[in-house]
Amino acid sequence: MTSPLRRLSSAPAIWRDIRFLQAAAQGAFVLLVLAAVGWLVNNLLETLDARGLDLSFAFLQRTAGFVIGEGLPMDRTDTFLRAFSVGLVNSLRVIGLGLLLTTALGLLAGVALLSSNWLLRNIARAYVEVMRNTPLLVQLFFIYFGIILKLPSLEDRIVIGPLLLSQRGVWLPRPVAAAGAGLWVAVTLVCLAMATWIYIRRLRRRLATGEETHPGWWGAAIALGMPTLLALAIPEGPFTWEAPRLEGLRMVGGSRMTPEFAGILFGLVLYTGAFIADIVRAGILAVPIGQLQAARSIGLSEFQLLRHVILPQALRVILPPLTNQYLNLAKNSSLAIGVGFPDMYNVTQTIFNQSGQAVQMIALMMTTYLAISLVISGAMNLLNQRLRIVER
């Protein structure tokens, strides 16, 4: 039997130990990175000091001296911080509405790509190929300068149902709160809470017993049915619709979508929707054909087949790449500067041109975009975890 002293003496030297060498290499790399970062920061501080600048954000309390014509109200006497907030809200408007519209468009186009109708299928394919293979900025220029600004004037505006289209923007009716709006909103919130509670209970019961409890139908009936009945019971309704109308040389009433907002919104939706359409098509095709045949053989309708067989499995394939497209839409919204829309990037550029504080403004803008992306990614990851297959 070998003694411990002999085993210790036969051990390799520390400079020959692979674990020591790996740890030493990693430590040396970290030190080099820290040294490089320190040199860059020191160089930045020296440059700022030579120019009489600093890295504080106190300049955000200075008077901006300019106004932003869209979004939250703003005066010339407001601060740079107020201007940045207006740009942020404008970006969130584009991103939020863009995510909703591009999801709907991508879903419809993705299903159309698999349609048995030859004309519908090829129209969807042409749309996807054109949008995916041309630059987004070129599309934005074409939509804004080639379509929106070429619309007729207000006097010769195009009327499509409740919509009014002209080169001055898009108008649509606006809901105006009536006397019973407060009660209706309160009841609707209570109904939504009740619908969520009943949906969860009936879903758990179905999973535990196998009994069909129809959680979706119950939830929808409570969330939509009771507010609808209350709205019909209120004499004037909870809301009235204010239609836009032309008075003299300007439109009054209704809700207006400016040409710049419409340009960036429609451009992002059409561009991202093409990518989502192909993702939806691939997700549906990933469902095994044998399961579709088995579902039809037991008498499921096409709606039941879509709801119970195709979508639950296709969503597991769709969600990861769909998250990437949502993030791309949020980041591509910075191209709004190409059509003159005052989003966060556009306003940030104006602020550091006037204040000279480029480092702070770029850092603030990057941090804000990072936060928006992390929120979107976190929400989609939570949804993905709930829909994933749990292996036993």
Write the layout of secondary structure elements.
Blueprint: H1 4-10, H2 18-50, H3 80-113, H4 118-132, H5 136-147, E1 158-160, E2 163-166, E3 169-172, E4 174-177, H6 181-209, H7 215-233, E5 239-242, E6 245-247, E7 250-252, E8 255-257, H8 259-285, H9 289-297, H10 302-332, H11 344-355, H12 358-387
Antiparallel strand pairs: 1-2, 2-3, 3-8, 4-5, 6-7
Helix pairs in contact: 3-4, 3-8, 3-11, 4-8, 5-8, 6-7, 8-10, 9-10, 10-12, 11-12
Essential attributes:
12 helices, single chain
Distance between the termini: 46 Å
Number of strands: 8
CATH topology of the domain at 92-155 and 258-342: MetI-like fold
Query: How would the global form be characterised?
Result: globular
**Average pLDDT reading:** 85
Rounded radius of gyration (Å): 29 Å
Q: What oligomerization state is this entry in?
A: single chain
Helix share, percent: 55-70%
What does this structure look like?
This protein is of the alpha+beta class and 392 residues long. The chain has a domain at 92-155 and 258-342: MetI-like (MetI-like fold). 66% of the residues lie in helices and 7% in strands. The chain has twelve helices and eight strands. It has helices at 4-10, 18-50, 80-113, 118-132, 136-147, 181-209, 215-233, 259-285, 289-297, 302-332, 344-355, 358-387, and strands at residues 158-160, 163-166, 169-172, 174-177, 239-242, 245-247, 250-252, 255-257. The strands form three sheets. It has a four-stranded antiparallel β-sheet. It has a two-stranded antiparallel ribbon with strand order 4-5. Strands 6-7 form a two-stranded antiparallel sheet. The two termini are 46 Å apart. The mean pLDDT is 85.
